[in-house]
Structures are given as structure tokens and as C-alpha cells.
Amino acid sequence: MIATQECVAQEVAVSFEIDGTPHVVMLATPADLEDFALGFCLTEGLIDAPADLLGCEIRLREKGVVLALHFAPRCASRADARRRNLVGRTGCGLCGTDDLDRVVRLPEQALPSTPIRAGALERSMRELGLRQPLGQETGATHAAAFCDLAGRILLVREDVGRHNALDKLIGALLRAELAPAEGFVAVTSRASVEMVQKAALAGIPILAAVSAPTQLAIQCAREANLLLAGFVREDRATIYAGAARLRGGD
For 97-140, how does the pLDDT look when each residue is reduced to its tens digit (9 = 90+)? Predict the structure, then answer.
């Protein structure tokens, strides 16, 4: 046996503290934390727009990281209504939600019926395989990418948790002031209901996943008018919702 050195992915406790009050603890990769804060707050319904997050201070602690967030006054009361009771695990973004009415949240208005070519979905996943430095070094992280409608990758974020990677990407998308409706998201994971929910709440009309969706994810995609593609690989893609919007292939 030959001894070698390996790179290992970091996973730390990230505590969200809203206006001085602890809200939730997530296990995440300690990178792109300002993007994480903005994306998480938006997709959790804590804020309505980037301008509602007035400040984000990153405080390093012995056992993890604290994100000290400051909200606009009109959003200050939402944290109490949406607070989770348990630690948020990397594997399930809904763990700890204490109200069934908040398990599935979708935008009030349907997403735009943005068309796309099948080749763009395949291109995005092919390029994403080359744009994951953490994943390539450790083999332990997920990636989420925002792509234009030709499948060219514009932004990528990585994390040990698939939901965290998507939240980071949404935060980066908002901070870059890119138009969510003029592109789509590709993810290196299955398409769980929360992945569909987060994409829809961010105004992203298309979600492409390397693996399969769940039944509830398909149902929510159809309700939100989100094109949902699973098993997106080099030569195939299965369309579970919004198939009429696919161009140039079956």
C-alpha cells in the first residue's frame, strides 16, 4: 500500500443570527458566505429583495462561523414566524421546519415560459463537470451553476450540501444583478422539492439536474411553470415538467 495525501472538504457550523437573535444553524462549506446569506434569506422568505438585507458580518468562532445579519425594518418580524427549531443538516434543507404550511412555498405568479434547446441542457452539465475545483479535489461537494440559454456557464458555487450550493448561487446571481429569467440552473444532485422551490422563488424558470426528481418536486414544478429536467447527461435528458418548451430535440 502506498501512502498518499488527500484533500478533504470542509464542513462547519454556520449560524444565522438575525438582528442579534439566533435563527438557524446550517452545516456548510465555509466559502462564499455572503452569497449564502443572501440566497438563503431570499429563498426562505425572510426577505423580498436583496435591498432588504442591510448588512452581513462574518464572525469566526472556535466551533464555526456566525453570520450576523441585519434586515430592513419591514422584514424584521419574519424571522420569528419562520424560525426553525433544529439544526439544518446538509442532507435535508427542510429538516427542522415546524409548520406544514411552510414546507412547500411557491411564487405567487407563474414563472415565464422560457424555451430552451435540449443541447443547452447537455452543454451546461458537460461544462459544469470542468468547473468544480472543490469537487475535483475532494470528491465530496455539490455544485450549482447559472447558465445562459445557450448552456454557457456564467456562475458556479460549490458546497457539501446541495441546497447550500443552490442558495450560494442564487445569492451570487442577485449580487451580480443577472436576470434570473434569462437563464437556467444546472445542479450536480437530484432535484428535490426544495431545489425546485428555491429556483422558483428566485425567479429561475428552468432547473436541470444530473439525477432524478421526486414526485413532489415534479408536482411543484408544474404548479410554478418551471421546466424540470432530470438525468441530464452527455446524450440524454428526461423532461418531467414543461416539455412543450423544449426546442430542437425530444
Answer: 555 455 678 999 999 999 999 999 999 999 999 999 999 999 99
Q: How far apart are alpha carbons 147 and 22 in whole angstroms?
A: 34
Q: What are phi and psi of 177, to 5 degrees?
A: 60, 35
Domains of the chain: 12-102 (3.10.20.10), 116-247 (3.40.140.10)
Mean pLDDT over 215-221 rounds to 97
Query: Residue type for 47, please?
Result: I
Confidence (pTM): 0.92
Closest among 241, 232, 28, 207 to 119, alpha carbons compared: 232
pLDDT digits (tens, 9 = 90+) for 198-216: 999 999 999 999 999 999 9
| Among 41, 56, 75, 92, the one annotated catalytic | 92
- Cβ-contact 72, 190 below 8 angstroms: no
Kindly report the CA angle at 26 between 106 and 206, in degrees rounded to 5?
Answer: 35
Q: Determine whether 92 is an active site residue.
A: yes
